[in-house]
Every structure is written in C-alpha cells, then in structure tokens.
Specification:
Helix 4 (145-153) crosses helix 7 (233-247). By secondary structure, the protein is of the alpha+beta class. The radius of gyration is 22 Å and the shape is globular. The strands form four sheets. Strands 1, 2, 3, 5, 6, 7, 8, 10, 11, 12, 13 and 14 form a twelve-stranded mixed sheet that branches. The protein starts with a strand and ends with a strand. The protein is 28% helix and 26% strand. It folds into two domains: 2-276 and 397-410, no CATH class; 279-393, Conserved hypothetical protein from pyrococcus furiosus pfu- 392566-001, domain 2.
Length: 413
C-alpha cells in the first residue's frame, strides 16, 4: 500500500491468481446480481466445479432469500475457510503494488475502461449533504450494513464490486496512462457470456502511476468532490463500518496505512462510452389513474402543473399517456419530485427497469410512472446540489455488465 498526494487515493497491493489459474472460472459476477435467478448461480457452480474461484469466497445474495440463518452462518464459515485455504496453498501470486487499467468488453459495448485503486475510507461519507472527496449517490439503507460487516470482519482479503465514478470529459486519466504502453497482467473471457476483460499494470513509483495521481488531483471539483459511488455503495459503507471497528484497536500512529482503512475499487470515467445510465421507473399499485392525478394535483399544486418545466409520464391501462409538467418542481430531477410524492402518501411502489415492463404492469389498479434519464453532464453537479439522488434513480448497464470479482487485496496485517 502506498499513499499518494490525494487523501482519497492509495496505490494498492493487488492479489491476482497465480499463473496457470483458469481466470474464466476464477472471476465471478458481483454477489448482488441475479438475486431472483438461482439458476444463474447454479450454472456458475457447475461451471466452476472444483477449480479455484472467487465464487467460493463470496456470498451470492440470492442465498439470503432461500437459505436459513444456520445455512448462511455455515456459508460465512466456508468463505473464511476457503480464503485461508487459498492463501496457504498459494492460489494467489505475490501482491503487486500498482494500479490496474481495466478494459471490459461485452456484447453491448466494445469497451469500458477503469482504474483499480484503493480508496481511503476516511475520505468517504454517505450522509446527505456532506463535502467529502468520496460521496454516495443514493441513500444508504443502514440495515443492509451489519451483515456485510460480518462477512468482512471474518475475511483476510476483500474482493470488490465497488465502482466509483469520476468526471473526466477529456478522458485524460486513462488516455495518458495508456500512452505508456503498460504490460498486460490478465486477459480472459468471462463466464456466462459476460464478455471479456483485460488488465494492464501500472507499477507504483512509475511516471505513469504519478501521472494517474496528478490527473485525478486535477479533477477535484470546487465543491471538493472527486468520486461518486456508482455501484457497491453498501459494500463501501460496510467497509467503512468495519474500519471504524478496527480503528479502535489500532494505535493512532499506525492507522494511516492499516489495510482495513482502505477498500479496493474500480474508478470509471462517467463519460466513458461503455457506461450506460438507464432510468428506473415506478409502478404504483392499489390506485387508479384518476386517484393518482388527484393526489398529484394536491401534492404539487394545480396551478404548478403547466405546459413548461420538469415532466414525467403517467401510464395506465385503457387510457392515453398523460404528461405531467411541473412549472416549479420541488426537486431538481423529475424522479426526485415523483419520489417525494410517493413517500408523502406512502404509496405501494415498485421500481422497474424498462418502459415495456412498466406498461405491462400498469393494468387494473396499477399506474406506471415513466421518468426521464439523468444526464452525465449534470450528474456531479446534482450530487453537489441535492446531496444524494433519490433512491432507485438510475441503473448502470445490464446485469451481466456489472463488475466481476477478479482482483483481491489483503485487509489484515
């Protein structure tokens, strides 16, 4: 672990499987994907079989809905045991201190590039309105943190699915790094038709590593924001909670470089062409369209519903779509204004990807709300203005495009 001139960024000691390991069987998708599709994870299990795999050292969240507490406890013990086994058997090669430039290809996008780095948890804050270098993009559900802290507390290493976003319209961080022709450190297809990933290594102490740090430093906004959490906010919040527990046992003069103080993450330029932002729409159950429109008039004000301004679309079976336009919206985003109304009346709401799915569900006593997507150009300024986005505002790409566990890092001394 090497500290840098930016408090938020450290150069990690990255663990990768030793040469000869089948990386297609090693790398597995983020644990919070395909949570309603146990067959996906069954297929992963069969594909991996007895080969070394990250699948054996993470807890797919699909299990949380189908296993007993006793089974989950055993899963956690197995994870800790497998980590120790992999370490004792030398499954991981010696750690490499440096950044990794990732390049992910899928059937939808030929390239999405990122930088593997260690983020200092002391510079991350998920409370709305904070001015930390690293900030959450959505509200954090505190009840989701303790189970994840338990996993981290029992593990000697971490495997991240955290994705941080940074605002680099000129793409200077990665473009400048790639000009140095870094060596390829891994290159593999990914299981379940999830594409391909290549990693290029930037060693600590090199001019290229120094350039990455300097380029990140130049991107810190006037508001003090560098990274916004795109994926894995609860994992990052859990890592911070774990560090707060560990910190109590660490002398003050040893805290700056303690491995538990940091979390491995992939930082991706929000302007990367391989990164799609899709809106998450709403379907409200137990209400007619007329009842919804009456509540909308009551909440937003009849005189505030005009022909120019912020808008969203109300969908219902047997009627034409209705566009609601707010002259003076209560939130800078339409999805935020809608969510404020939903929360006010405690409406029975589900969060849906895709317009076709919304229309399919908007039958009988269900009403669909189609919201516009968010702009990459105003993403960071919205965080600075609003603190966090409303819950379930956006999704980044399809499920199979999410991060795969591949790199690891030791988090104990």
């Amino acid at each position: 672990m090497r500290l840098t001139d930016i408090p938020a960024v450290a150069i990690p000691d990255i663990l990768l499987p030793k040469e000869g390991t089948d990386l297609q069987k090693w790398a597995v998708i983020a644990c919070d994907q395909f949570t309603s599709e146990p067959e996906y994870w069954d297929a992963c299990d069969k594909f991996v079989a007895d080969s070394p795999s990250a699948l054996r050292i993470v807890l797919p969240e699909v299990k949380l809905g189908i296993e007993t507490e006793e089974q989950i406890e055993q899963d956690l013990k197995d994870i800790a045991s497998n980590i120790n086994k992999y370490m004792s058997e030398g499954i991981w090669a010696a750690p490499s201190e440096g950044f990794i430039i990732t390049d992910r290809a899928t059937s939808l996008h030929p390239s999405r590039r990122g930088v593997m780095l260690a983020v200092d948890l002391e510079t991350y804050d998920f409370t709305p309105g904070n001015k930390a270098l690293v900030r959450a993009t959505e509200g954090t559900v505190l009840s989701r943190i303790p189970p994840r802290v338990k996993i981290r507390a029992n593990a000697a290493v971490e495997l991240p699915h955290i994705m941080l976003l940074y605002d680099d319209p000129e793409d200077k961080v990665i473009s400048n790094a790639l000009k140095t022709n870094p060596d390829v450190i891994y290159d593999t297809d990914l299981m379940q038709d999830s594409g391909h990933i290549t990693g290029r290594f930037i060693p600590a102490g090199s001019a290229a590593a120094e350039g990455i740090v300097n380029d990140f430093k130049s991107l810190i906004s006037a508001d003090g924001l560098l990274f916004a959490v795109g994926d894995g906010n609860h994992s990052l919040a859990s890592a911070k909670a774990h560090w707060e527990n560990v910190k109590k046992t660490v002398p003050a003069d040893q805290q700056a470089t303690h491995p538990a103080r940091f979390a491995l993450a992939e930082a991706v330029n929000i302007h990367d062409k391989g990164l799609d932002f899709e809106p998450i729409h709403r379907v409200i159950f137990g209400i007619s369209k007329d009842e919804f429109m009456a509540k909308a008039q009551d909440f937003f004000g009849k005189d505030n519903m005009g022909s120019e301004g912020q808008s969203f679309v109300v969908v219902a079976e047997g009627s034409e779509d209705t566009t609601v336009t707010l002259t003076n919206a209560p939130h800078t985003l339409a999805v935020g204004s809608v969510q404020m109304m939903i929360d006010k009346y405690e409406l029975n709401c589900d969060y849906i990807h895709g317009k076709d799915s919304v229309r399919k569900l908007s039958t009988g006593d269900a009403v669909g709300i189609l919201v516009p997507g968010i702009s990459k150009d105003t993403f960071f300024s919205t965080i600075e203005t609003e603190g966090v986005f409303p819950r379930k505002t956006f999704s980044m790409g399809e499920a199979f495009e999410k991060r795969f566990y591949l790199e690891a890092r030791k988090i104990t001394l």
